[in-house]
């Protein structure tokens, strides 16, 4: 009713105002048309709209009240063409005066504001490469915000380290730049700058295993939008932290209008997506007999026993480790606002059990934001986030062949019972392992009863005040704080493999990191005439970070009753504490100039002073420039059929990386103990040489981009090509060991990344009831090490696992990408003694037998040595792509999303170990085809006792995959029904994640990296938590 | 509105002014605030000793790593099934090459210790320590430096001589060419001669530091290795007659009894204490690699050939059962367990089988029996099989057979041997005496019998003359191929 009244009153107003707005141009004939242009939703007048009569060049502009009139010789009816920036162009038939023309907002119009560093920009004016995560991606089921980036934006590769709830992941925007420094992008959450340093998720407690993803402390349901800044023009404003790209996360805010209460919730379950094929009891018994034969022992199983094991006495340890695990999420939010204030308040609860027993993740998150227009010129606001997350994960074992209990489960001989007849765990009945203090480790018990808990409390809060000095000048001061308090509790009871030897092992640790950021910025916006638009940003920021870490442990407990809560009852192991602080001061500036909206120029610069660098190079300077050209605004390109927009972007600039850890430029003194007279005494010695020249890693990046909109913006195409070169890379340069040191951190290396990115967003079909949109994203990156310094062209990073370390599986070599696997090429199996006598061998002649593996003597020197090893491929994918679709029909909608990664290799270390035959551990079913005198396999060697793991191309597997990542089917209740039950909208949906995966990879899952964010040895799969399939049903209600 | 501007400016200014970019670390000492007090000086020398017993992330030099080179790559020891490192297996079969990680780690550990000694020697003079303490500490550092160079020169031949801490991080300035063997020995003798001024004994929490007796004893071994018989005899006799009170333990097994550490026979030992390395380990890994529980699983460190090295002990020779164990009572079951092969025993703490990495048994660098046998060897080579030489060997034998040490014993004593016979007898005694004591490979190389002796073990038939030295680590030659020419055969 109210709306209608408005329209009537407008009409009356129009009638009354006839003649007030005189038209300046001379009319052709004295015929008059009066009209008003309004927004179709708000009914507010649109000022400055262009109204033309089709077929003649004559046009007028609507005035401050949206009114216009024509004096024309045309006779009714004739066609008016009405256009205004940000609205869809409209043609209306004028068949009488007055006329009201309502325009529809064009959401895809280039006028859209895009969040950029320290502000927003019109999409049309942007010169850099900035991409937004599509809204559909933001509703995925995940525990962590970084997973929302997966497959959403070209040029971004997200690798989750494992399927563990709350697991860490590594995010690479346009490839990794750094060898030893951090490669994660900078996250800006509501203006707060955060480096997602996963070390903040651990307090260094021994054996605690993989860390918890710090970003998982932010509830994904609170996220309104995510923008990814990729090229230097966009990221240089973040200076020394921009080199790895920037991810800007904006949380949901209240809007002016009605108060809303909304509930979003889902419940579901997860199942392990794959199990490995291991030998059953009968198969294992015959393998053990073969192993025994190889070392001259009598077989322990008779043929009758082997036959009998086919029907009874088989224990499936692997299945005992997995379970169907529930996951649920509930989020309640209140939001709204009036003329002067806006607010949003929410509370969330996320609870996920892991598919491996003994693991889970829980999060409680609270958030509030409030903004108030104090006066016409001054507004202030507050953003506050609190979250408490608690996670139980798989603890590490001592290492070596057996990095954690999950791997130990796979190694368990299938003839060994898991539990005793009385239901207790079997700690004694296992003739294939050694008892320690009367306990034979039972890895299922280890998984279930080892406590490995990480609790993170995080407070992320910011305040700002913004003052509009005049129409052109705005000043803003923001202060924010980020506190991460991580507590780890670990206890291995005396019945566990880790705790048995020490009679219980307890460890507790705390890490408290707080960071305060102050940002002071001034914005200036002006224009000179209609053609020249100019804006500038200047600012000074300061970030101060302080951290403290402490952990302590004890062993030799009388019993396991007190767990980790009574260290004083045991014998203390050496405690540890540490403190660190760092300061980053920055000056920043950016200027944008736009000529007629056609030519846009952005220059930016930042000067960063960081306490992390040597006294001689504290300050670094990071400039950039970007240019864009809206070609379709040129006369020659204005009316190309089917083409709406063509935009060309060019940018260049330098960014830096300061993620190298604190104090590394100083000579530190470390403690090493020795004893005299039976008393342990502290010795101190330099552990590092000082490097006062330690300076920034600098990345210079060039970007060319093309944005195309076609067919009434139904097809939107974005193409980018880039070249990045990182110099002054911080490398632990090997120095002669005679110096007493192994390596010195120096700025010496170089790495390049180059690649292309394609984003294609299409509206495939659109009718009144039916629509289908799809989004295709493709990126290819090529990474190459250019230099590692001091005449060395190759080194082998130290993989932190004894078994893998000896194999030196990964290398950094000039000319090859980071994460290159290095090893032998195998060449079948020795079938005759003649072959052994004449062909190159890896062992001595005496130790090589028929049935052993042959290797390729690449250097032809007649023996197989380390020099015969070579490049076996890199873990970096050749290209990644994703294809997301949204289909809706009436109230039904279907979203599905395929993701693929192609050409990356994975070192399947777990499979390598499972293909090793021993007297006491289970093995892969691949060994069924092992060489025997009657099965002349040319693939799998004979059974031997504990052969060494040797890295060959067999275990460097193709990690390519295509997977149906998510599929969601939803139904929204018709308004008529939902309003009857007192709601504004109700949506029900079912969803499945990781439903189907197509891959040749033989491990649990090709999305894996056991060493988390590490850039030197990515793509190793050794005991990583398996991925799961998730099925959920959900409900979204707004009241 | 002015107020608001003022507030904004004030709050911005508050943060701008308060922080500096020079951040002083609060949780670790830097070079700038070290070497000030006497305690700093003492701690720096403690770290020099720690280079022998501790290397986080690796097996320590005398906690096992050097054993691969000095024992496993000799004749009597070998890599068992549990030794999974291919580089260890390669050393056992003498097929190692310049990329051997064990050789590289030994090189690194030795030079890390030398650097710590250099740091101490360069910086102690500027501390507030008393002159007496300064002199003692510097001489202790020189003793360890000499000990480490003595290992290096025997393992690799002429090695680079580095005598000062690095002052630059530029690789060029950190390089140093190989010196000659003679130059290295000159340096060793110089340091040890200074170390002869050390105290002859210590008390309380200083027991275990290097003494003047230790310096003379190592000097005797240095001269013996150089085949400088007169000086070897001179220094060995100074050790014996210098009033230090050294003597043989009556019971051979006491040498490895942790309750009798730093006793009368121990001239210098690497100290291992429970929890010395932190995290519940001592830094010695011998027990965990010699004993894998009451199972048939072969440990990593095993005897290579039972007939050649275990069955050779005469009846009554207590050294066999102090060096090897064939049967052991399983404390969990109370039953006697017989191992398929005798295990090494010297570093097993039978009261502490549950935490094998926390064993507090010292590693003897030089003990009195070594001085007696070295003196016998030097006399025999210089003057022939004299009575004195016979007596020295016989003392060691009498103790081995649990007889009174200074009383001649007809069943045990060697009498009337020729020089050749006595030479052979001394070599047999050393073989039986010093199992797992880091002597065997050095002995065989000194006698020139490495190839013939090691060849007797079938699995070690790859041995050749090249094995009288170890290769310069390839990683070092990658950085400095010109200054570090490779040894023959690698």
From TrEMBL, chain A:
InterPro entries: Beta-barrel_TonB_sf, CarboxyPept-like_regulatory, Plug_dom, Plug_dom_sf, TonB-dep_OMP_SusC/RagA, TonB-dep_OMP_SusC/RagA_CS, TonB-dep_rcpt-like. GO terms for cellular component: cell outer membrane. Residues 122-246 form the TonB-dependent receptor plug domain. Its main location: membrane. Transmembrane segments: none annotated. Keywords: Cell outer membrane, Membrane, Receptor, Transmembrane, Transmembrane beta strand, Transport. PROSITE patterns: TONB_DEPENDENT_REC_3. Gene3D superfamilies: Carboxypeptidase-like, regulatory domain, TonB-dependent receptor, beta-barrel domain, TonB-dependent receptor, plug domain. It is found in: Cell outer membrane. It is a multi-pass membrane protein. It comes from the Bacteria. Belongs to the TonB-dependent receptor family. This is TonB-dependent receptor. It comes from Flavobacterium sufflavum.
TrEMBL record, chain B:
SUPFAM superfamilies: TPR-like. Keywords: Cell outer membrane, Membrane, Signal. InterPro entries: SusD-like_N, SusD_RagB_dom, TPR-like_helical_dom_sf. Residues 324-490 form the RagB/SusD domain. The keyword Transmembrane helix does not apply. It is found in: Cell outer membrane. Pfam families: SusD-like_3, SusD_RagB. The keyword Transport does not apply. Residues 64-224 form the SusD-like N-terminal domain. Residues 1-18 form the signal peptide. One of its GO terms (cellular component) is cell outer membrane. Its main location: membrane. Belongs to the SusD family. This is RagB/SusD family nutrient uptake outer membrane protein. It comes from Flavobacterium sufflavum.
């Amino acid at each position: 009713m109210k709306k209608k009244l408005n329209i009537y009153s407008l009409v009356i107003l129009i009638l009354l105002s006839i003649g007030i707005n005189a038209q300046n141009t001379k009319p052709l004939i004295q015929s008059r048309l009066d009209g008003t242009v309004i927004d179709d939703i708000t009914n507010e007048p649109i000022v400055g709209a262009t109204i033309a009569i089709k077929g003649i060049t004559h046009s007028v502009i609507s005035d401050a009240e949206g009114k216009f009139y024509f004096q024309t010789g045309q006779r009714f009816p004739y066609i008016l063409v009405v256009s205004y920036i940000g609205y869809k162009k409209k043609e209306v038939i004028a068949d009488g005066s007055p006329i009201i023309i309502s325009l529809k907002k064009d959401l895809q119009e280039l006028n859209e504001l895009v969040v950029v560093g320290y502000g927003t920009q019109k999409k049309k004016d942007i010169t850099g490469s900035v991409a937004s995560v599509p809204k559909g991606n933001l509703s995925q089921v995940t525990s962590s915000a970084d997973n929302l980036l997966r497959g959403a934006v070209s040029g971004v590769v997200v690798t989750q380290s494992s399927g563990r709830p709350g697991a860490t992941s590594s995010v690479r925007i346009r490839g990794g730049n750094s060898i030893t420094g951090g490669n994660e992008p900078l996250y800006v959450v509501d203006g707060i700058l955060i480096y997602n340093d996963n070390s903040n998720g651990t307090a260094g407690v021994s054996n605690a295993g993989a860390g918890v993803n710090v970003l998982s402390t932010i509830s994904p349901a609170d996220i309104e939008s995510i923008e990814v800044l990729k090229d230097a023009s966009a990221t240089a404003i973040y200076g020394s932290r921009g080199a790895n790209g920037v991810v800007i996360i904006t949380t949901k805010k209240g809007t002016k209008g009605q108060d809303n209460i909304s509930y979003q919730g889902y419940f579901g379950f997860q199942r392990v997506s794959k199990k490995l094929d291991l030998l059953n009891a009968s198969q294992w018994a015959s393998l053990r007999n073969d192993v025994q034969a190889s070392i001259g022992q009598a077989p322990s199983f008779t043929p009758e026993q082997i036959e009998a094991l086919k029907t009874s006495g088989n224990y499936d340890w692997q299945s005992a480790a997995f379970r169907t695990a529930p996951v649920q999420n509930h989020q309640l939010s209140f939001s709204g606002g009036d003329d002067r204030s806006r607010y949003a308040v929410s509370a969330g609860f996320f609870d996920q059990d892991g598919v491996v027993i003994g693991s889970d993740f829980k999060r409680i998150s609270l958030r509030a934001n409030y903004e108030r227009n104090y006066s016409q010129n001054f507004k202030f606001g507050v953003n506050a986030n609190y979250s408490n997350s608690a996670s139980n994960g798989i603890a590490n074992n001592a290492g070596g062949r057996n990095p954690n209990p999950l791997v130990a489960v796979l190694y368990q001989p299938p003839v060994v019972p898991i539990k005793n007849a009385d239901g207790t765990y079997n700690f004694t009945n296992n003739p294939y392992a050694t008892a320690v203090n009367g306990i034979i480790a039972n890895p299922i018990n280890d998984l279930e009863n080892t406590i490995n808990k990480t609790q993170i409390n995080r407070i992320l809060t910011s305040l700002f005040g913004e003052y509009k000095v005049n129409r052109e000048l705005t000043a803003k001061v923001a202060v924010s704080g980020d506190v991460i308090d991580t507590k780890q509790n670990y206890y291995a009871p005396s019945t566990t493999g880790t705790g048995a030897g020490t009679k219980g092992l307890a460890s507790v640790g705390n890490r408290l990191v707080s960071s305060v950021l102050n940002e002071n910025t001034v914005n200036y916006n002006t224009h000179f005439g209609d053609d020249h638009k100019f804006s500038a940003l200047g600012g000074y920021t300061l970030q101060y970070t302080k951290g403290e870490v402490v952990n302590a442990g004890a062993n030799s407990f009388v019993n396991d009753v007190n767990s980790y809560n009574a260290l004083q009852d045991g014998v203390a192991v050496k405690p540890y504490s540490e403190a660190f602080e760092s300061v980053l001061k920055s000056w920043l500036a950016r200027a944008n100039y736009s000529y007629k909206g056609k030519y846009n120029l952005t220059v930016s610069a930042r000067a960063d002073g960081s306490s992390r660098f040597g006294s001689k190079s504290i300050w670094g300077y990071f400039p950039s420039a970007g240019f864009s050209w809206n070609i379709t605004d040129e006369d020659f390109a204005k009316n190309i059929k089917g083409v709406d927009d063509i935009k060309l972007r060019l940018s260049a600039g330098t960014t830096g990386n300061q993620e190298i850890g604190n104090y590394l430029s100083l000579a530190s003194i470390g403690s090493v103990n020795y004893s005299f007279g039976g008393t342990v005494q502290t010795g101190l010695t330099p552990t590092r040489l000082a490097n006062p020249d330690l300076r920034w890693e600098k990345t210079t990046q060039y970007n060319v981009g093309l944005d195309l909109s076609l067919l009434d913006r139904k097809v939107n195409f974005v193409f980018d090509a880039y070249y990045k070169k990182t110099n002054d890379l911080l490398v632990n340069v090997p120095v002669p060991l005679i110096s007493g040191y192994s390596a010195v951190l120096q700025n010496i290396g170089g790495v390049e990344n180059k690649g292309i990115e394609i984003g294609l967003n299409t509206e495939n079909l659109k009718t009144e009831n039916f629509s289908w949109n799809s989004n295709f994203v493709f990126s290819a990156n090529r990474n190459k090490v250019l230099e590692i310094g001091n005449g060395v062209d190759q080194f082998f990073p130290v993989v932190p696992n004894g078994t893998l370390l000896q194999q030196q599986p990964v290398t950094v070599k000039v000319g090859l990408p980071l994460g290159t696997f290095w090893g032998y090429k195998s060449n079948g199996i020795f079938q005759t003694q003649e072959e052994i006598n004449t062909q190159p061998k890896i062992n001595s002649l005496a130790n090589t037998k028929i049935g052993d593996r042959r290797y390729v003597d690449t250097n032809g020197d007649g023996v197989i040595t380390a020099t015969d090893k070579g490049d076996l491929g890199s873990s970096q994918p050749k290209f990644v792509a994703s294809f997301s679709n949204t289909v809706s029909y009436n109230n039904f909608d279907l979203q599905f999303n395929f993701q693929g990664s192609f050409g990356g290799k994975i070192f399947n270390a777990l499979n390598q170990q499972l293909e090793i035959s021993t007297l006491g551990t289970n093995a892969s079913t691949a060994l069924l085809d092992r060489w025997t005198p009657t099965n002349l396999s040319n693939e799998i060697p004979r059974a031997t006792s504990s052969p060494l793991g040797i890295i060959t191309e067999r275990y460097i597997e193709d990690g390519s995959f295509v997977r149906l990542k998510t599929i969601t089917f939803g139904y929204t209740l018709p308004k008529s029904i939902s309003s009857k039950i007192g709601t504004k909208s109700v949506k029900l949906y079912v969803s499945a994640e990781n439903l189907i995966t197509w891959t040749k990879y033989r491990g649990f899952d090709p999305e894996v990296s056991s060493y988390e964010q590490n850039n030197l040895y990515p793509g190793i799969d050794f005991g990583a938590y398996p991925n799961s399939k998730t099925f959920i049903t959900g409900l979204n209600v707004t009241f | 509105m002015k107020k608001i501007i003022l507030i904004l400016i004030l709050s911005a200014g508050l943060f701008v002014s308060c922080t500096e970019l020079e951040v002083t670390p609060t949780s670790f000492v830097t070079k700038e605030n070290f070497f000030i007090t006497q305690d700093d000086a003492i701690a720096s020398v403690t770290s020099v000793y720690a280079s022998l017993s501790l290397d986080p992330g690796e097996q320590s030099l005398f906690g096992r790593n050097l054993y691969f080179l000095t024992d496993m790559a000799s004749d009597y020891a070998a890599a068992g099934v549990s030794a999974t490192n291919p580089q260890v297996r390669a050393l056992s079969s003498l097929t190692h090459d310049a990329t051997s990680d064990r050789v590289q780690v030994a090189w690194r550990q030795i030079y890390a210790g030398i650097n710590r000694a250099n740091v101490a020697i360069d910086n102690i003079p500027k501390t507030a320590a008393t002159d007496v303490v300064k002199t003692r500490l510097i001489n202790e550092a020189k003793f360890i430096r000499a000990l480490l160079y003595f290992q290096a020169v025997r393992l690799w031949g002429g090695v680079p001589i580095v005598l000062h801490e690095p002052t630059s991080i530029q690789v060029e300035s950190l390089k140093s060419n190989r010196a000659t063997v003679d130059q290295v020995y000159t340096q060793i003798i110089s340091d040890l001669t200074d170390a002869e001024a050390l105290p002859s004994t210590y008390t309380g929490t200083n027991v275990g530091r290097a003494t003047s007796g230790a310096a003379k004893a190592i000097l005797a071994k240095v001269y013996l290795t150089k085949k400088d018989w007169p000086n070897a005899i001179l220094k060995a006799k100074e050790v014996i007659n210098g009033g230090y009170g050294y003597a043989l333990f009556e019971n051979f097994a006491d040498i490895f009894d942790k309750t009798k550490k730093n006793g009368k026979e121990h001239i210098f030992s690497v100290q291992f204490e429970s929890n010395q390395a932190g995290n519940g380990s001592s830094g010695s890994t011998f027990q965990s690699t010699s004993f894998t529980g009451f199972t048939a699983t072969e440990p990593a460190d095993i005897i290579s050939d039972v007939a050649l090295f275990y069955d050779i002990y005469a009846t009554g020779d207590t050294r066999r059962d102090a060096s090897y164990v064939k049967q052991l009572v399983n404390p969990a079951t109370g039953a006697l367990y017989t191992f398929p092969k005798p295990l090494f025993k010297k570093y097993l703490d039978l009261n502490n089988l549950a935490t094998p990495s926390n064993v507090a048994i010292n590693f003897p660098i030089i003990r009195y029996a070594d001085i007696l046998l070295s003196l016998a060897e030097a006399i025999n080579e210089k003057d022939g099989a004299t009575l004195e030489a016979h007596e020295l060997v016989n003392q060691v034998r009498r103790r081995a057979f649990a007889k009174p040490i200074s009383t001649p014993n007809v069943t045990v004593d060697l009498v009337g041997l020729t020089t050749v016979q006595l030479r052979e007898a001394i070599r047999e005694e050393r073989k039986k005496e010093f199992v797992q004591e880091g002597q065997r490979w050095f002995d065989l190389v000194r006698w020139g019998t490495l190839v013939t002796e090691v060849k007797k073990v079938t699995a070690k038939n790859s041995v050749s003359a090249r094995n009288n030295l170890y290769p310069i680590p390839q990683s070092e030659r990658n950085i400095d191929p010109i200054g570090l020419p490779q040894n023959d055969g690698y």
